[in-house]
């Protein structure tokens, strides 16, 4: 993820509307109120949330959801408007949020009764404050598989860890474990999903370094233990992701490099290594086929572990194959290794082949997500969100052909995050317009150039949620979580609000 303090600067660089687009009439919905030309301007505030958390006094940059108890949420950001304001974070529980009843048609003619029946949003309180950072909390993650530890990363370079004991009848007990500070700024944190390596996280830093830690609360002298550290990126490491089995870690950088690290030595044990001896895939801008002028900023890995997609400047996306480390291919690679020594780039089990290069969108790719949609065989979808305000969906089973390009998915505001509801056709997106939207990607095709007005009808817009300030007024949605089912979406806003929306 790029530095959140640079987000606003990048938004200002969004493409200007064409003259034809500027003249287009966009119907936003029934909530818009017509105004006479001689009347004072009226601002209509819409809040679709069922609950809110408003203790933060400044922007929220990060959010994390407990892997076992999804109602437990952590948010982090800045504590105040001053440049030297410390970072701040909180833990809260959304289980007290009351669902709004589905109203019968008869209520439609009585807005007052409908509003009364809908009720008010639930105010959420803090269970624990995350303190100790001297600059904004830029990243949060609960460790896997049980969520025993909450880890925060700050723009002060600190990595801090809290033990979180979830008790069914008494909430959660939180106790500080310790901290480490090896880097200037922490850009992202990702938890390792391998059952063999619990309570392990990886982080990427502004100096390009990558670190892997295992956290052991029982070791009072050294609870944050460094497992690996890598220093091949020469510019900020902007994104990272583990393969589904937690054996490999992929990272990208502003220097246009992609490395897939063999953290636990599984690939090396099967004679699959790159020349540097640390990674299994090593691609940089020196390879003109892979070069992305302006760098790489986002990353997503196929749930089957077959490929990694890296998104970057100018709308570029590169798709690269990953090593196949299943037992069958392990024995094959061992046999090849015995015959030829270490792998070559042509070895299909080794990964590193560029499978596709796309450039449909016109500005930086901020977020990527992959889904195995429910068909037989499964349809593999890759979604990308761009600073140009569009969302593009590619069909990996058809050589990454464009399945849908939703131009203006968030109007002319940056798309900050795209994420599929797990193994489904449903894609959730958020942007600097302050809106969260969900799209049903079944059927349909590529929309036209003026898709801002036709997205709802033609691109599968299923639902949208409003409540953040947005519209370029410092109220964009900077992050969200939605669990595995997508029934509830919890946001972190640039306006200092965390909102709970119900699907």
TrEMBL record:
Coiled coil: none annotated. The keyword Membrane does not apply. InterPro entries: Quino_amine_DH_bsu, WD40/YVTN_repeat-like_dom_sf, WD40_repeat_CS, WD40_repeat_dom_sf, WD40_rpt, WD_repeat_multifunction. WD repeats lie at residues 130-163, 230-263. Keywords: Repeat, WD repeat. Pfam families: WD40 (PF00400). Residues 101-123, 328-351 are annotated as: Disordered. It comes from the Eukaryota. The keyword Repeat applies. Transmembrane segments: none annotated. This is Putative WD repeat-containing protein-like protein.
